[in-house]
Amino acid sequence: MNRVITPSQRKLDKQQSNRARMLISCPDQPGIVAAVSRFLHEHGANIVQSDQYTMDPSGGMFFIRIEFDLNEIERRLEPLELDFQEVVADKFQMEWSIHRAAVKKKLAVFVSKEDHCLLELLWQWQAGDLDADIEMVVSNHPDMKELVESFEIPYHHIPVTKETKAEAEQKQLEVIGDKVDAIVLARYMQILSPKFVEHYPNRVINIHHSFLPAFIGGKPYAQAHNRGVKIIGATAHYVTEELDGGPIIEQDVQRVSHRDNVEDLKRIGRHIERVVLARAVAWHVEDRILVHNNKTVVFN
Questions:
Q1: Same domain, yes or no, for 203 and 223?
Q2: What is the pLDDT at residue 6?
Q3: Does residue 244 carry a catalytic annotation?
Q4: Which of 115, 244, 260, 287 does the annotation list as catalytic?
Q5: What letter does residue 179 receive in the DSSP assignment?
Q6: Backbone dihedral region of 219: left (phi > 0), alpha (psi from -120 to 50 degrees) or beta?
């Protein structure tokens, strides 16, 4: 089953052929926006969108996301990047990156036995609403093989046990290789080792089925039910060495009551999880997220 490319998607792809996205974080000081805007103008670029945020205006950090068009971008982008480092970035102590909008990020999706988050990503990808390419699905169970292959996406079944975890992760790294830009844990019910995570800093996105920082770890819906909560939620975050403690990208909640048992909470939660994860993945592949320490700035 091939991805459907709609007329509106073709028009968007054409518009983005010469478009790039610039992400900048640096210590806040006067003149940053003027310097960046002047530089892009002098290099023939046209700014089409700009969003900025200052964290603690009294001397904190400055963040900005800029979309710009540059004719003949294949030829002109590399010289622009070299000049930007020398003329602007060094002066303002910037951490920065530029990403071409037409170059889609490649994803590997990890999944276990529950299919709702995976299906949401596959549906959005098929409809052209997820601006990325799903290169493969990796699972510690064989259950999703037929489903995934119906979308003509490779499926890799790599079993994981406590005794074989290190070996399994090595196989996963070999399968992924340099084929993907990011990994999405779509209810992958295994804890990744720090050694694995260090290969993809701020490029592994997890969906946790609770409103973090409440109810970290396993069985959060049972934990929530035992506490008699009135709101349940889901959290998409980048994976770090700290369990469920990485920078939060997106969250959402829904009200529940004493009448809802654990199975009710799981059913309600599945909808929240799929929506929250899909949003987080979309923002990541569209270069809308800047990470500073253990927080995110999301230009959505």
A1: yes
A2: 58
A3: yes
A4: 244
A5: S
A6: left
